[in-house]
Fold:
Amino acid sequence: MNMSDSCLDAETLAAWVDGGLSGAELRMVQAHVADCARCQSLVGAMARTEAAVPQPEAPHTTRRWLAWVVPLAAAATAVVIWTTMPARNSLTTPPVTTESARTAVAPPTQPEVVASPELIPEKSERAAENKPESPARPQPTESRDQLAERVAVAPPQEAKTQEANTDVAAAPPAASPETAAAPSAARAQTGIGGGRVAGLLASAQNLCGPNSTLTPPGVTTLNAGSSPSPNVCWIVGRLGVVLLTTDGRTWRGITFPVMTDLSSVTATDARNATVVTADGHAFTTVDGGMTWTAK
Amino acid sequence: MSTETVHLEDLALARACADGDEAAWEKFVLTYRPILYRSADALDPSGRAREIADSLYAELFGVRGSGEERRSLFHYFHGRSSLATWLRAVLSQRYVDRLRADRRIDALPDDEGAAALAAPTTASLTPDRQRQIDVMQRALTSAVVALDSRERLRLACYYAQDLTLAQTGRLLGEHEATCSRQLARTRKALRADVDRQLRADGLDDRTIAEYTASLTEDAGTLDLKKLLGPRPSSSSSPRKEPSLDRSR
Structure:
């Protein structure tokens, strides 16, 4: 192919994007694209689709570096909160600080590597969940001893998340016994959470319909949901419909690999979930629905 | 080709799919269908690109009319990239070509319509302002034409196509920090070349500063994509000497 005259074919473009061109061919491709409006648009379109492909994990060195940074940041936050606490000499303090202190002294979680730009909002939203409540909200005061006691007995973040995990299965139990047993066990833990998932399920139900962009035509009911934390909820339905919210309000459709009816979902957070199909096959994702693995 | 990396696993999957192997198809659908659909949604959230993605399936399977030989699109994959990147490239190509075809159809209103559309823009500009834009566009076009291919490509990727520094750097085979430095250098060189041309046209420094400030505030009809698009042929190029001062 005379690259200076003709546009890039898909294979050459893909090889270039993957770093598979070199030497004279690379120079020819670059020279052609520099002067070709169509190929420049192609490059722009390719860049927009980059987030669709799961990114490999960041090098280990980055994670190690972050592992140092996270506890340091937590310690710095704790110092700042301590030094800026109002009425240091007083024995009373608003409980809002308790939440901040709990966040500060909680054991640092493993830093997450951003897999794709699509997931960045989720990270910020999850961080927002840990923000202290507004100081304007009237709260009873408590002594510093009480404060220290509450901080000391505050459960680790993971345990807290587990406590909030609630699943609701509106459909008949799935074939997989472990997954089918999960909803009732979770409901037994927290009745309030079960109500929350039911509410979210009801609100997500409104997303079905002929004009919906999240669900295919013909899907009128959603079957089951799992809410591992107050703002995160996974919901599944017919024809491979999987919906996820990370703020408790807005939903996005997750692409499921099989166009089949889904009967139950069990999630531990916004990234990890297991979905069971009506015919008993289980699929697991560890990256927020970007990729699925059949069990 | 001999020194290139061949994605053997993806190539084997593609060949098996092309031959109609059911297990291979199952793996392909499970792994690559979500990638294809997410790519389509990223290209066009309204669902238009999904139609193209769906039609790709038929071609990947090699559906033909009765009596015709089955020829799968997979036969065009030779493992020079990952299968995911190749699928994204095919999808992007189809999508861009459809957009361009639609634009060509849309861009054929009758002359009155075109004139009516263009009229408000032209009418809203004062003669002085129009002259400023014309002068600056001429100088800028000339300066951009004088850039070498790598510099034009870097500008096009970063400014016209909105790629990130990292993405732009990868296409040019350089680190994003290098890419950033080179972009800054090219901007400075462009500015110097434009100033030099304007001085040659008889403008003083105060007027040049005024023109530049005015254009910075409102680019008017200046279109960066057009500036960085096809380069005029040598004969029609106003000036070809690469006179940019690269030392700064």
Summary: The longest helix of chain B spans residues 176-200. Chain B has a mean pLDDT of 81. Chain B has two domains: 8-104, 125-227. The two ends of chain B are 39 Å apart (CA to CA).
